[in-house]
Each structure stands twice: as structure tokens, then as C-alpha cells.
Structures
1.
Amino acid sequence: MTEPLLDVAGLRVAFPSEKGFVAVVDGVSFTVGREIVALVGESGSGKSMTGRAVMGLLPDRARITADRLCFEGRDLTRIGPREWRGLRGNGLGLILQDPKYSLNPALRIGRQVEESLFLHTRLPAAQRRARAISMLEKVGLPDPEWVYRSRPGALSGGMGQRVMIAAMLINEPRLLIADEATSALDRDLQVQVLDLMRSLTREMGMGLLLISHDLQQVADYADRVLVMRGGRIVDQIAAKNLGRSENSYTSALWRARPSARTYGTKLPVIDREEGRR
Ligand SMILES: Nc1ncnc2c1ncn2[C@@H]1O[C@H](COP(=O)(O)OP(=O)(O)OP(=O)(O)O)[C@@H](O)[C@H]1O
Ligand SMILES: [Mg+2]
């Protein structure tokens, strides 16, 4: 097997509290290769903090330690701000749920979608523009030329989210972390965007860490699933077997997955005792 893109061992993220540091990610180990790995778990289980730790985007107060945190063999715990800038939006991409916090309202969409090409490549302006417009089209935006010229305020939330996804994919990251990236979109659009992310994963040999609370979606799109609970990974399973896990916590989550009726709501908190064996 080739070396994984991302290799994480013993990752710990802790926040200060009155009782000293409290770990919200508590010794997590996993790898991501050129595949789709899903991270699932209840609200507060530490999924986003795990993703942010990999991106070097934790809040200042957080304390991070790891036995190993490597991207393409580079130790991420040892790189400085300049190297981070070289990695983010280039080798490593992150898509968050809410484009309101990720897009700059003052700047035209085109400029924001092209930014990583501007920063990390020497492509001339005309080619950057052509790539941006074709990417806006790929994420299913109607009239990409108009979107290119518009500012974020002119777009709906769903369109803004697709713009974010276009901005992250345009420079073909080797690893993309999608933290509930499609949760705010309606069902049809989720399918469209996930299909796109999956085909790019396959075509470009990208790795995708898909953070999601939607177990059905994960079963449909991921290769492997990591189940988090209370800051730890409690189960690892092939996505196609997600509905047949022998782990009682995973099967409780599976049974609690939203139906078409409750779609869009967060996972309920599973009874604390139920998950124990
Ligand atoms: N800035 C912070 N200071 C202290 N604790 C924090 C901070 N941010 C998050 N936490 C705590 O870290 C824990 C893990 O949070 P995280 O955001 O990773 O959960 P999550 O699994 O992504 O949940 P969700 O499904 O709701 O997005 C939570 O208990 C949360 O309260
Ligand atoms: Mg989260």
C-alpha cells in the first residue's frame, strides 16, 4: 500500500477550563488515503475539532498534541505560518457548512474562486477566469458568467455553498476536508455536490475526509467510516457495512439516522448507557 495522504496518531485537542485542560479530542488515530473517509458522531463528539486540527485552524486557546500528524509525510505540528499558507487552499482544502463565514461579502465571486490559483499558480488571468467559470458550472451553478461577476450578497445560501466548493476544488487539493459541507443544501443539491466530490476524488486521486452527521449519506458515499464519541474513535467500519456494525453505539446511531421526514435535523443524543457494551 502506498503511504497515506494523512496520518494521524494520538491526536489530542484540549481547552482550558476551571478544572484544568479538558480534552475534546482524546487520542484519535486514523489515516486517509486516496479515498473517502467519513467521520460521524453525535453533536459535540469532536469531529470538527479533529478536522480543524488537521488544517491548523484551531482556536488560539486550544492546546494540540499528537504522536503523529503528517500530511504527505510532512509533520504538521512543526510547520510555521508561511508553510501553512502554502498548504491551505493548495494541497489541503477545507469546506465548512456556512458560506456566510467563508466568503468575503465585499469581493466578487470570481476573484474568490480564483484566489488559490492566484496564490499558488502562475496561470495568466484569462486562464484563471476560464477555470473558475468552468468550475462554477461543474458545481451546478446556473449562469456561471453572471455568478463570476456577482458579489456573495446576490446569491442564495445554497449557491454560496456551491461557490465555496468550487473555490476549494479549483486548485485540485490532494486532501479535502468537508465539514458538513452539504448539510445546509436541499437533498437534490446534496446529491449533486457529493457526486461531484466523489468523482473528483476518483479522477484526481484526491483524499476526502467527509465530516457528517448523516449516516445514510455516509453509507452511500464513503469508503470507510470512523465513528467518534466523546473525543474518541469508537468504531471503524467499511461504509457498505455501516448498517450491520457489531458495535452497539454505531448501530444505535444507525437506527437513529434521520428518515426522509426528519431529514435535516441533527442526530438525537443517544442514551449514554445504550452505547456501552
Ligand atoms: N472554543 C471552544 N472552547 C471550549 N470548548 C469548545 C470550543 N469549541 C468547541 N468546544 C467543545 O469541543 C467539543 C467538540 O466540538 P466539535 O465542534 O468538534 O463537535 P462536533 O462533533 O463537530 O459537533 P457538531 O456535530 O455539532 O458539529 C464540544 O464539546 C464543544 O463544546
Ligand atoms: Mg462540527
2.
Amino acid sequence: MADQFFGKTVEEYILQLKKFNLDLKFVMELKVQGRLLRWPQDIAGNLDNNVIRLYPGHIKLISEGKRIGDYRWAGYLDYHQQTVNHLLLDNLLTKFQMFEQARHSLSCGMGVLNSAIKAIEAKDHYTKGHSDRVSQLAMKISDMFDVDYSEYDIEIASKLHDIGKIGVSEIILCKPGLLTEQEITEIRKHPEIGANILKPLPIFEHLVPVIRHHHEKIDGTGYPDGLAGDDIPLLSRIIAVADTFDALTSNRPYRQAMSTEKALGVIAGVKGSQLDARIVDTFLSLREHLLTAAN
Ligand SMILES: [Fe+2]
């Protein structure tokens, strides 16, 4: 996550430098928390060959009294360029502080939510490990799509997709026989309950619709809102495929696990009606991997 964050921030930073025509005037080296970025990369060698010693410019990056990295440059900067350079650096530090705060809230939030996942798994032992397996599959499928979510978001959303089951009675979750209509209505509340659990946490706000819509169907017959096609968030559609596969290949109170081969057949059969056709095709292309993993 830190790498993604700094990679993006520094890319933006370099773009800004280019915008201010600073690109030909100097070389720089930025080291934040062990991550070293040199720019321009093609003359990075100059940094090792005394350029810094000849034209030293060095700023220690300090955040809340802690040294988080170093910024060094070599070359001539006029007054205007130096001002812009310092402003951009300030921006980088501010972003770093925001990142640190977000990371702290995230680890607190994730701690609470991980406990909630464990609580669901303890309540419904048939789903033990389900969240982790769905998360791994969803990440594998997402790799083959141009998704707008970070790897981290995909992992969190797919791990938490069933968090709303915490609000569903254990008797219904573990019932061995067929469910009554009332029990089905009860169990179908879990995507909404899950979305409501995540809503108060600002760091997960963007994942609320993903959780809410993971049981929608492409033909609009799913729940809770009967969304259809591309109106269903892409990540919800990806989780739906991974979730269906894992449910079919796991033992449930009312039936034994299906073989991988058979489950792939079932998934192919609901392509375009229940599940997104493009995602199903991608998923089916993982056939060999899934068969090997099952053995
Ligand atoms: Fe679910």
C-alpha cells in the first residue's frame, strides 16, 4: 500500500515539476521510508558521480518529529524554481501525514472487522475460510480486468462481503434443511446489513456499494435493489463469481461440496443471466489453475 501511495504521489510530483519546466535544470533523489526514487532516471548515474557533492541540496523529510526520508538534488535552481520545489515538497509531506493517519485508522478499522469475520465464521462454521478463498479468487479475476480499485480495496471488499451475516440468526445460517420464505427474506438482508456496518467508517465508504450489491444478478432478479448489468458495481460482479464458485465447492448444511469440474459447469450455465458473461469467461480461463488447486 505504501508503495502504491508513494509511487502515485511521486509520479504526480514529477509531472508538476515538468509542468514548471524544472525537468532539465536538475537531478533529484527522493528517499521516503526506504523507497528510493531518482529522477530523471536516465542520468541517475550522475548522482553517484559526485554531482550531489558538487551542487549539494539536501532536505531531511520530517513528519511529526520523525525523520521519514531525505530529498536531495543537484543542479542549478533559480529563486522561482526553488520556491515551486519547496511547495511541492510540502505537498508531499502533507500527503505523507494524511497517509499515516489513514493507515492508522485503517489498521484499527481492519482489526475490528477481522474480529467480525471471525465471529461470523464461529457462528456459521460451514463458511470457515470462505472470506479468504473468495478474496484470493476475486484478486485473481481482477488481475485480468481493468478495475478501478486498488489491490487493497479488492482484498478488503471480498473479505468483508458477508460481514452482514453477523446480523442474521445462527439457526437460519446453519439450518440443514430447506429454508422457509421468511428465513430466505431474513438471510437476504445480509448485504444491506453489511453495507450499514461499513458506512460509518470513512475509509471504507467507497466499498459500501460493492458490499451492498454482491447478490445482484445480471438479469436484474437479484437483491437487495434488483440492479441489472453494468449498474452493478464491477467489483460486486467479480465477487459474485468468486463467491458462487466457493459456495458450490464447499460443504453446506443442506448439501455436500461439488467437484470443481461440476461447479465450473454450473457457473457456465448461469453466464449472462445470474453472473456477468465477461467475468465468467475470464473465470473459466482459470480452469487449469482451479483444477490443480483442488487436487
Ligand atoms: Fe453474501
3.
Amino acid sequence: MSRRIVIVGAGFAGLSAAIGISADDDVTVVSDQPWCEFLPNIHELLSSRKRPTALRLDAQGRIQRAGHRFVLDEIVEIDVATHRARGRTSGAHEFDALIVAVGGVNATHGVDGADRHALPFKSVGDCARIRDRLQALAARSGEHRVVIVGGGLEGVEALGEILRAFPRFHIELIEGGPRLLPTTPRSLDRTVRRECAPFDVTVHVETRVEAVHEDAVLTADGAHIPSDLTIWTGGPTGSPLLASAGLTPSAGAWAPVHDTLEASAAPGVFVAGDAAQLPAPISKQAYHAIDMGTCAAANAIRRLEGRPLEPFSPSGKPMLISFGHLGCFLVVGKWALFGPAVSLAKEGVFQLVAAQLVPPLDTGSAAGLWDRFAGALPEPGWPGLSSLIHGLVGATDLRVLPPNP
Ligand SMILES: Cc1cc2nc3c(=O)[nH]c(=O)nc-3n(C[C@H](O)[C@H](O)[C@H](O)COP(=O)(O)OP(=O)(O)OC[C@H]3O[C@@H](n4cnc5c(N)ncnc54)[C@H](O)[C@@H]3O)c2cc1C
């Protein structure tokens, strides 16, 4: 009898897990959207540099082509004791092994008014909404004031795209930590601030947001910052499903797993991608999620066959942080490179990873790859190549940022 494997979520981790299992097994992927959203590039929606369709990979089609069942539904309950996951509309899905790959949810950390008045920055739909609001704001006369809460990777990438498309806007960037991009070398914080100098940008660090109103942001030090549009990039937190399934010790936490990705709380249940909390925590990155999906799939099969599980070993890859038309950072340890040409590397990663996860239907053909490349450009066809040419011309403007104290 074939083994029933259920995968919850078809993002980076769920999709790569599904691709890693043979069609001989009885695999069901249940995800609440038919695509895998390419989140590392969603900032580009703000400036219309990319269109939503370019960032939505056809996960459903890819999973079905791999010979598996795809169910478009939200899993609302997992019973690890009876080995059942329940879909909101599709009912019970029984499993012999389960892979939970649900990513995270937007976290507003209980800040008063943030859910109502700040726009989240967590999905293609979120960023398309922000783009629409930015365009509506630009069409209005008078001042255009945008507040970005969060000066991490998402906040800085959002700032770069707003400067690209709306260079006259007044922008306030608020970060709770002592500097922008707190997990990267200090040189990045300094470079971002220097690049912002010609623009109307104010950076606040060590500043905690206390409340968000419709037209202002209030900080813990008593400042009242007027805002026509507030963008929330406060980072993700664990899905409520993890807590209700008993996979986490508390609500909002990530699911603790062994180094094999098997849930500490439930043998036979594997957790992959952002949802998993390894004994030695790693950054929540798409490339880790893809590798974890592959590892979780292999270990789920090993568990069903009674073979020993293998540990997940995270690969070290450089980090790419886009800063609009001003450039892109490539961070390797304590060193970084900055310049417009590095943006080509980020685009290259997008094209390669997208082609690896969901190859064009006419695999290997130049036409199929061109369709995806052209589809990712702001304008179809040759006019869109201007951005590529801009990147190539900027190849000479490359700065090495050595480690600083
Ligand atoms: C703005 C932003 C920028 C980022 N930039 C980078 C970057 O530059 N480089 C990088 O490597 N990483 C980046 N990341 C992180 C990266 O996107 C994540 O690490 C990656 O998406 C995690 O993959 P995942 O499969 O765990 O989760 P996701 O990609 O979030 O996929 C989870 C899937 O599960 C589905 N799902 C959730 N709950 C349920 C449910 N109950 N039932 C059914 N389906 C469900 C979701 O709809 C989704 O399709 C960024 C993330 C964000 C938000």
C-alpha cells in the first residue's frame, strides 16, 4: 500500500518537499493559495518594477505534474495523535507522515492600531495594495508622507523601491534596534543613510512604535509622526496552527524541531521552512526553506521505512539586500559589496530559483525562459531591458564595504 504523506503549505519549503517525493507515494499538498509567492522580491511591486503574476509561481501545476494531489484549502486543525489534518472546506486528510510548511504570519506585537491602520508587507497581495495606495497618494496634491515601521531587510527594501518610484515623498523609517539592518555589518547602516541624503528621508533608531493612528504614528518617546500611509514590516511570527496542533510551547512561537526537522512534540510530523525552530536557530531565508523542504521529504520517507533520519545541514549563502535604483548589497560574513550591478545578481537568483522550482512548461527551451524573464520586467519585451542596461552601466560603480568596528 502506498504511504500517505500530507504536506501543508506550498511555499518554498512545501513545494520543494513535494518535488522531492516520488509519484509512487500517495502525496497530498494542501495550501490556501495555488501559487508559491516569491517573497524575496515582493518589494519590487511597490515601484511596479515587477508585476504580481511574475512573483506567483504556479505551485499547483508543478505539484500536479509531479504526480501528486493538490487541494486548495486552509488547514485549520492538525491532530497529531489520530494523524488527521482538517481542511476548512475539504474535510479530513489522513496521513502516515506529515510535513508542515506554513511559513509565518505578520506580527504587529500588539501595537495599538497597527492591524487597522498600517499596511502589512508580507505577501504579493499586500505589496500590490501598498503600490496602489502609493500611486493614489502621488496623484494627490500637497505633502506625501509615508512611515515605514521596521528598519530590517524588508523595511530597507521597501524604502529603496519608494525612492525609485516616488523620489519626492517624505519618508520616515522607524527601527527599534540601534541601527538599520541590525543583523548585518555596520557599514550597511551607514551606506543606506548616506544614499538617503539627497532625499527627504528621516531615520529613527532605538525608537519603539506605541500606536498607529489613521494619520499618524506615535512613538514611545512621545513623538507624533504624521503619516498618509504607514507600512508595517515588523517581521513574522509563528502561525496559530502550530500552537493549536501542540507543535509549539506557546502561541506565536515557531515549532521546535530536532536537527532532522522532526517536530520535538510529535514523531512522524516534520516541520520545514520558516515555521521550524532548529536547536541551533538559522535565519528565516528562502534558500534555507527550499533545502529544509528537500530534507523533510527525505526524512519523512526514511521514518516510514524505519530507516535512521539524517540531520539538516544549512548551507551558507551570501545575502542580497536590494536598495531600489540606488544599488544592492551582497553580504558575505562581515564584508559587503554595494552597487547597482549587484541588483543583477538578485535578479539572477530570482530567475534561477524560479526556474529550478517551477521550470517553464517547454523545459529547456529558450522561449520558455525568455517568457519568465520578460514577464518579470516592468514592461514586456525590449523596453523593459532599459533596467538591465542600467544595471550593466552601473557595473563600474561598485563599492567594497570592509568590516568596521
Ligand atoms: C518581504 C520579505 C522579503 C524577504 N526577502 C528575502 C530575501 O531577500 N532572501 C531570502 O532568502 N528570503 C527572504 N525572505 C524570507 C523568505 O521569503 C522566507 O524564508 C520563505 O518564504 C519561507 O518559506 P516557507 O515555505 O517556510 O513559507 P512561505 O513561503 O511563507 O510559504 C508558506 C505557504 O503556506 C501557506 N499556508 C499557510 N498557512 C496555511 C494553512 N493553515 N493551510 C494551508 N496553507 C497554508 C501559505 O499561504 C504559503 O503559501 C523574505 C520574506 C519577506 C516576507
4.
Amino acid sequence: MHAPSSNRYTVVAILLHWAIAGLILFMIWLGWNMDDNEARFQLHKSIGIAILFLSVARVLWRWRNPPPPLPDDMTPWEKRLSHGVHVAFYALMIGLPLLGWLLVSTSSFQISTVLFGTVSWPHLPFTEGLKGGVVHDVTEFLHSKGAWVLIVLLGLHVAGAIKHEFAAEEGVFKRMIPGLFGRPHSPPPAQGYAIAFGGAVLLFAIIAAVPLMKSSPSAPASPGTTGTVPADEGNWAIDPAASEITFTGTYQKKPFSGTFGRWDASVLFDAEDLDSSAIEVEVYPGSASTGTKLYDDTIQGGEWFDTNSFPAVKVSLINIAASADGGYTAEASMLVKDQAINVPFDFNLTIEGDTATFDGRTTLSRKALNLGQQSDPGGDWVDDSVEVTVKGSATRKE
Ligand code: HEM
Ligand code: HEM
């Protein structure tokens, strides 16, 4: 006869068991039903990473709080089988999320992972050269088949629990359910909260800090002096607080819009001498903010603006000419990554005394700019055309 304190799992172990079991079953269903729905992919990745850290906590907890010994009336092979299933479960609880993480890290679709819409999750290191290759295909196979292994194990696991409950044996089920439903619950004294949960949270925090540290170098070395018209040679100073560059587009049929938080312009403009007027703008796409973290992170990724290698997009307004309606026509000559294109850019400009107000717009094609052409060349998710609007005011320099 076991003392009540020794034949039960701790409350923490019970909670972790059922939370992880429920999440895993939901994840298998979700994995099979993601279709092309990006929100479901993000949810799958978010819950999967949560399972990874709950499982890390669970393993650490188990180390500090060993499970109760199996009932004496189980035969040795039953004990071995039960133990084997548990070990395999732990391997899958950690292994499936790791495979999923490797899967998205090696995908040729460089889609960012933002956990529950808030925490930017990095890709695994050293996966740069593996994108779209055989490692990805093998990982995809293992991740998908791993779910089936889990289902088979679950069959054995549940069969075992039922058999031991209803055969004339001591039973194990009551060990894993809260006292409410079983015998009065007197769990063994628990210890190691800090190790189990502190350890899991610390590991999570270290990994989550990686993207935060990476995002800082996209700031320009010396703002305002990077254009080919040095800022001090321009005859107009842009008023940053009153000026903005915004963009709008469509993502899965829903409109989105955003603002570039950081850009520099140098403006040499004389309405009487348009030929020698020149407007240079450098826009930092890493500063784009749409209100949705997933979009902001994706914009910075390799197949989009690749802001680690190309922090700035350079734009020069050339061929400025007065149009019949009192506005101006021009061409925006842009360098996006290593892609140079020219697009028409019309703008209005009103000068009153020493203050100029302006607004202009253009429509850009993602295909022409080579943005997101691996994961979405046909514009199935993000529409090919993105409209960019510039407006603001400037003051004449002395
Ligand atoms: C315990 C955790 C997880 C379980 C049980 C699970 C289960 C599944 C299942 C059943 C599928 C469908 C496979 C198929 O179509 O045959 C799937 C697909 C997928 N999972 Fe997971 N997953 C887990 C964690 C993760 C994590 C952490 C990530 C990424 C961070 C991830 C990324 C993916 C992706 C990208 C797919 C689509 C694969 C494809 O067909 O291209 N999974 N998952
Ligand atoms: C995906 C779902 C599940 C997973 C991954 C899972 C995993 C595990 C693991 C790893 C253990 C061993 C704990 C340890 O000793 O460290 C365990 C124990 C247990 N599980 Fe599950 N489980 C799942 C679902 C279920 C279900 C549906 C039942 C209900 C019949 C169940 C009943 C039990 C019982 C009764 C024990 C205690 C066994 C014992 O005392 O040795 N589990 N489970």
C-alpha cells in the first residue's frame, strides 16, 4: 500500500500534462487544416513554440519531482512499454516543435514568425544556406509523420490507462487527474518551481532577444547627409513632424497601410529652374510600421527589403516638369536592394512665402521591385500593387 503522498503526480505535473495534451491534439487538427490561411500558420507556430517551452518546464519539473513509482501489480513488460511510450512522448513534445521551427527556418518562403502577434521569433541559426533544399524536405516529412507517430503512441497510452483502470489492478488514471475527480488529492510536496519555470522562461527570453538585438543596426550612420544632394546644399528643409511617407496595399483581401518612420530628404528646388532641381530621398524600410507586427517583420526579411543587407531605398526625382494643371510630373528613379527602376511620380507643390507644402503619389509593383517574389509571386496574399503617398511641408533655407 502506497502512502497517499507517494502515488500521485504533483498538481503542477497534472496541469502540465493536460495542458500539453490538449494543445497537442488541437495542433494536429490545426496542422491538417491550415490551408493557405496565414493567420492559422501563425497560430500553429505560436502554440507550437509555447508547447516547446511548456515541455522544457515539464522535463525540468519532472527532474525535481520524480513521478510516483508504477503500481506493483504491473508486469515488467507493461512497465517497460509504459516507460517507453512516455520517453517517446517527451521526445515528440520537444522534437515536433523543433522540427517545425527548422521547417520554417529552411523554407524558401521567408515568412516571419510573430508569436501571438507580439513576439518576433527568429529563425534557427545556420539555416541560411539550407532554404528550400533537401533538409527542408526531410524536415517537412518528419514533422508530418511525427504527428502520426504521436497518434499511435496516444492509442497505446490511452489503452494502457484504461486497462489499468478497469482491470482488477491498482490503476494509474487517478494519479493523473486532480483530486476533485479521484480520491482526495494529497499531492506530494512540490519543489523546483524556480528551476522549471525560471529555466523555461529564461531560455525563451534569450531566444526572443535575438531579433531585438538585430533590429538596431538599420539606423543610418549620419542622418540627413546620405543623398547625392548633400543636405547643406539643398535650399529647402523638410519639416519632419509635418511630413510623411505612407503606403497602402491589400493582404488576403484586407487593406493594410503603414508609415515609414525614418527617411531623409535633400531638396534643391527652384520652380523657375526645374532642370537643375533635384530631390533625393532615402527611405529606411526597416522603420516601416503597419500596426501589425507580422507585416513589419516580414517587410524586413530577405526576399522583401532585406534590410540587413540594404538598409535604405534610394529615390531620386528626375525629369521634373510643370504640368498643365499647375502640378508637376516627374520620374522617381529608385534603387531597391540591387533593383533599379523608374516610375512616374506626379506631385503638387504650393509655395507661400518661405513655406512649401507638397503631396505626391505613385503605384509600385512588387514584381518590378523584386519584393516577396519567392513566397508570393502571383500576388495571392499581398496584392502586387502598393500605393505610396508622400506629403508634407518644407521651409526655405536662408
Ligand atoms: C507539438 C507541436 C506541433 C505539432 C503536434 C504539429 C503538428 C503538425 C501537423 C499535424 C501538421 C500537418 C502536416 C501535414 O500536412 O501532414 C503540421 C504542419 C506544419 N507545422 Fe506543425 N506542429 C507542431 C509544432 C510546430 C511548430 C513549433 C512550427 C513552427 C515554428 C510548426 C510549423 C508547421 C508548418 C510550417 C507546417 C506546414 C508544413 C507544410 O506542409 O509545409 N509546427 N504541424
Ligand atoms: C497528446 C496527448 C498526451 C501526451 C503527450 C501525454 C503524455 C504523457 C506522459 C509523457 C506521461 C508520463 C508522465 C511522467 O511520468 O513523466 C503521461 C502520463 C499519463 N497520462 Fe498522458 N499524455 C497524453 C494524453 C493522455 C490522455 C488522453 C490520457 C487519458 C486517458 C492520459 C492519461 C495519462 C495517465 C493516466 C498518466 C499517468 C501514467 C502513470 O501514472 O504512469 N494521457 N502522459
